Amino acid sequence: MKTHLVFAATLIVSTVMQAQKLEQPKQLLVEGSFCNPVVSPDGKYALLTKEHSQGVYLLDVKASKVRQISDKAGSGYAYSWNQNSTTFYFRTKNKADYHSYAKVASYDVKARTQKKQNSASPNWLPSFKGFEESTIVVYTNLTTLKIEAKDLKTQKSWVITNDEGQFYNALLSNDGKKIAVHKGADIYIYAIDGKSKGIKIGTGIATSWSKNDKYLIGFMDESKDGHTVSNSDLFLFDVASLKKIQLTSTEDRIEMFPCFYGDNKIMFSDDKTGKIYVSKLKI
Predict the structure, then answer these.
(1) Which three-class secondary structure state does DSSP give residue 51?
(2) Secondary structure letter of residue 228 according to DSSP
(3) CATH 2.120.10.30 is the classification of domain 26-280
(4) How far is C-alpha 161 from the chain's CA centre?
């Protein structure tokens, strides 16, 4: 598989700790080729998409069975679960529409029903968890390329990344007090109130917070020609100590898009084959 997230970043060995913190990954016997897993809070399901964010798929983790929810282009770009794992949210649009006309749709897992969330912006994903649960959402202002927050109850909004630069891919922590953001190939942590400068914690793509918000997990990919991903490994970022821990170093897999679930479990995809793996972290 291929991805547009290609970073030819320089790895500074002195700032990276390598440790055997990841148990031997186990492949889920899922039919098809997928990427970008996001596991439900109860660990029973995972959302998946295909290359170029084509479609949204619901994976029953225990049964390794996949059900297609959407076949729309770009619908797998960002999605999120509510806290009790009964509903998830994703982008949707008609085939002829531009991405700027995309809407948010919700899907009830038990009832197997889908409906539009007309008052929600797709730009709020993945921090949006439904109007019943979401107090604050974070997103990129597409005009200024700053990260902003919005209180959905008061409708108040503010800028979080007041530093110079262009920012993207904001990840709201589970306690709602901080965000991880990306500036170029670097990852920064900001307080949600936007009153302090960002703290750089490493280089790569962060994709998920641990349940206790002490760690971020992500990946760093490489490209020999600047277009096609040639390798990628998983990394753990300790938010307090600013340590970067390399979790994988393989030649037969291109590990990407890791996601925490439970206290120490992770799920990730192999960009080379589209296979899905699970493992445990020793943290």
Answers:
(1) helix
(2) S
(3) yes
(4) 19
Question: How long is the chain?
Answer: 283
Distance of CA 261 to the CA centre of its chain: 12
| 149, β-bridge pairs | 138, 158
Cβ contact 218:261 at 8 Å: no
All structural domains of the chain with their residue ranges:
26-280
**In the sheet that 79-81 helps form, which strands lie side by side, from edge to edge?**
79-81, 87-92, 103-108, 113-117
- Rounded distance between C-alpha atoms, residue 228 and residue 230, angstroms: 6
Q: Is 128 helix (H, G, I), strand (E, B) or coil?
A: coil
| Residue 183: CB atoms within 10 Å | 19
pTM of the model: 0.90
Provide the terminal-to-terminal Cα distance of the chain, rounded to the nearest Å. 30
- pLDDT tens per residue across all 283 residues of the chain: 444 444 333 333 333 444 458 999 999 999 999 999 999 999 999 999 999 999 999 999 999 999 999 999 899 999 999 999 999 999 997 665 556 678 999 999 999 999 999 999 999 999 999 999 999 999 999 999 999 999 999 999 999 999 999 999 999 999 999 999 999 999 999 999 999 999 999 999 999 999 999 999 999 988 777 777 889 999 999 999 999 999 999 989 999 999 999 999 999 999 999 999 999 998 8
CA distance 23 to 36: 20
What is the per-residue DSSP string for 246-258? Answer: E----SS--EEEE
